[in-house]
Amino acid sequence: PCPTWTPKAACRTCGLMAAPVFASSVDAIPLLLDRRVSVQKAVLTSWKAVLANPICLSLWAAIVMSLSLLGLGTLMFGLILVMPILGHATWHAYRDLVVRDPGEAG
Question: Are 98 and 45 a contacting pair, CB within 8 Å?
Fold first, then answer.
């Protein structure tokens, strides 16, 4: 039998592994779709946004995780509703977090 601390340790370990992935991609993917930038610059921009807004983006990560689990828990039928909502919300979060260049149109 597993010790009682095992689920807590596993949860912490998974969180520690997921946090850098989230920080690297939260704004990087929309930025790569929106502008002509390198992957390195997109990831660095994403990390800057996370470091500037850690509480807000921690809450956003929890919302994304919860809605994804909800969608998966409904035998993936919930993802039909959840994924477009998360995609739309992520796009607007990117537009609010990343400052546009003054000379850039759009």
Answer: yes
Q: Three-class SS string for 10-79?
A: HHHHHHHHHHHHHHHHCCHHHHHHHCCCCHHHHHHHHHHHHHHCHHHHHHHHHHHHHHHHHHHHCCCCCH
Residue 89, both tokens: 């919300």
Structural tokens at position 102: 């003054």
Per-residue confidence (pLDDT) for residue 103, from 0 to 100? 64
Query: Rounded to two decimals, what is the model's pTM?
Result: 0.81
Q: How many CA atoms lie within 13 A of 11 on its CB side?
A: 6
